[in-house]
Design goal:
Layout lengths: L1 H4 L4 H10 L3 H13 L6 E5 L7 E5 L4 E5 L5 E6 L9 E5 L7 E8 L4 E7 L7 E7 L5 E8 L8 E6 L5 E5 L4 E5 L5 E5 L16 E7 L3 E6 L4 E6 L5 E7 L5 E8 L2 E6 L4 E5 L6 E8 L7 E7 L2 E6 L5 E7 L2 E2 L5
The protein binds 2-acetamido-2-deoxy-beta-D-glucopyranose (NAG).
Length: 329
């Protein structure tokens, strides 16, 4: 039993390791990282939580929305240049109390945000909720899996142009599809997605983004794979990636030809495609405060910001400036 409980995200192991690192070491490491890049923008915000999984820029509100993990909901952080702002809790979902809040996506066109909830240790519950961006009232809360179903670990979410949501299952390597009104409409499975089943693949399908040409791009963390999933046919193909995206976590679509893949190390990679994501190339890397463990990326005013899992009294959202890879075409 104890061994089975260990099959949660590898980030949990990291959590234990990192929380053993004295805060003073973290601070001195950061000092070294940041004094070497004084012109970049690092937003440090005060928070009482150890873990923050995902931060996404909400342009309409002029703020980052943050999933507050054990908080089971969402917080906001204003992007101010002076001082360290404090995060403000916006919402806690009482109907999933005890679960953690993970991936989120801002659906600006529908003025809402969607967030994933998961049972961190036992993998016996998964849900996705949608909330209004102006007052964080719930629009829907959809249970994806419960104690009677196979175990699962819902992780991240993307929204297509019709408002359908797609939630990755990092444990069973499938994708739940939920209609814009909140009804669970299908479960996308494919032998390709489920190919990597070895015990050491702790984290499977993870970051997901919707591409306006009608497909999803999804990363498999431990396999280092990138998949392309057609949203109308649900056909899955593997993107042939030149360069490694091993450990890929959160994704962000920067343009139709560019995505960012956040990861443990390096903190983020820039991946580009010139053939509608049949093939792609890793063209740049960014290393931020590695001990904080990058987990998500977001775009704001044409820049990329990476958020990190671990903090003590403060968390960091750092601007990612990519170093080109010489091997890239
Ligand atoms: C997650 O939420 C569900 C629904 O309320 C609840 O039954 C379950 O116990 C929660 N999981 C944990 C680990 O608290």
């Amino acid at each position: 039993m104890a061994i089975r409980c260990c099959s949660c995200r590898s980030t949990l192991l990291l959590l234990l390791l990192v929380s053993a690192v004295p805060i003073s070491i973290i601070v001195s490491l950061e000092h070294a990282t940041w004094t070497s890049s004084p012109n970049r923008h690092h937003l440090r915000y005060r928070s009482l939580g150890l873990v923050r999984e995902c931060a996404k820029w909400d342009a309409s509100g002029g703020r980052f929305l943050v999933s507050n993990f054990f908080g089971g909901g969402l917080a906001e952080v204003s992007d101010v240049d002076v001082g360290a702002p404090a995060e403000r809790t916006l919402m806690r979902e009482p109907d999933v109390a005890g679960n953690v809040s993970l991936g989120l996506v801002v659906d600006g066109g529908r003025s809402r945000v969607l967030v994933v909830f998961s049972d961190l240790f036992r993998h016996r519950y998964a849900a996705v909720g949608a909330y209004r961006l102006d007052n964080f009232e719930r629009i829907f809360l959809t249970r994806l899996s419960g104690p009677e179903d196979e175990t699962s670990f819902a992780d991240d979410v993307a929204v297509d142009s019709d408002g359908n949501a797609y939630v990755t299952d990092a444990k069973r390597n499938k994708i739940w599809k939920v209609g814009s009104g909140g009804a669970l409409s299908s479960v996308i499975r494919s032998p390709l997605l489920e190919r990597r089943k070895e015990w050491y693949h702790l984290v499977g399908l993870n970051g997901i983004v919707y591409h306006p040409n009608g497909y999803l791009l999804v990363v498999h963390t431990d396999g280092g794979d990138l998949f392309r999933v057609d949203t109308s046919t649900e056909e899955v193909t593997q993107v042939d990636v030149e360069g490694s995206i091993l450990g890929g976590d959160g994704l962000e679509l920067l343009s139709p030809t560019k995505i960012v893949v956040a990861a443990f190390r390096p903190s983020a990679r820039l991946v580009e495609s010139s053939d509608d994501w049949r093939t792609a190339t890793v063209t740049g890397t960014y290393s931020g405060p590695l001990h904080r463990v990058a987990a998500a990326a977001t775009a704001k005013d044409g820049k990329v910001y990476v958020s990190h899992l671990f903090g003590g009294r403060s968390h960091v959202i750092s601007e990612a400036v990519f170093s080109p890879l010489s091997s890239a075409k």
